Amino acid sequence: MTAAHKLTNEIKYRLAAGRAERIYVNHPDKGLSFGPRKVHFNLDHVDIADWRPVGPVAWLFSFGVEATHVVAFGSLEDALEDAAATLKDVAPGRFVEPDYQNAISDMIDAGELEDVEHGTDINDLDDDEIEAVQASAEADLTYTESGWLVSHEWTCREVTPDEIVAFVKNEG
């Protein structure tokens, strides 16, 4: 049995908790559903041969207004990368690209770029101007290897297996 199966079986067991409730668990890497919430798991940075509440650090990420939820493990940085990779598979529309042209226009209008005209391509700017435009365009974004995320559209928190169960059951 893989670590992913052990984890989802443990959570499935905790969800059932002796009740005759219908629980849907699809492929462990795809998600766990119970009632209104579905949680996806990324297990790239976890060794849970014997899953326990004091085991690896688990993070619950929620992306977007109508949230896509991902549980990932390890350091916050590793977990964010893993959660973003899972998000790219299950909800690729959550990623954005920095709008450098809009940043150039806004900076021209604000008087921050002198001797630059509207419609100027970022590649036609000098190094200092490019750096300023990139900083402006990327200010409210979070970079991951999977793509850019709007910073205010995702959250995360450290969770235990019991908290994951409560969350999936829409109790937490």
Brief synopsis:
With 172 residues, the chain is an alpha+beta fold.
Percent helix range? 25-40%
Round the Cα radius of gyration to an integer and report it: 21 Å
How many DSSP H or I helices? Answer: 5
* Average pLDDT over all residues: 76
End-to-end distance:
29 Å
Main sheet attributes: strand count, strand direction, barrel closure: 6 strands, mixed
Strand content: 15-25%
Count the E strands.
8
Element string (H = helix, E = strand): HEEEEEHHHEEEH
Assign an overall shape: elongated
The low-confidence parts are 18-30, 47-55
Count of folded domains:
2
* Broad structural category: alpha+beta
Strand arrangement across the biggest beta sheet: 1-2-3-5-4-8
Give a written overview of the molecule.
The structure is a single chain. The chain is 34% helix and 22% strand. The model is unreliable at 18-30 and 47-55 (pLDDT under 50). It has helices at residues 3-16, 76-90, 100-109, 127-137, 161-168, and strands at 24-25, 32-34, 37-42, 58-63, 68-73, 141-144, 147-150, 154-159. The chain is built from 5 helices and 8 strands, in the order αβββββαααβββα. The longest helix has 15 residues, at 76-90. The radius of gyration is 21 Å and the shape is elongated. The strands form 2 sheets. A 6-stranded mixed beta sheet has the order 1-2-3-5-4-8, with helices on both faces. A two-stranded antiparallel ribbon has the order 6-7. The protein folds into 2 domains: 3-94 and 150-168, no CATH class; 100-137, no CATH class. The two termini are 29 Å apart. With 172 residues, it is of the alpha+beta class.
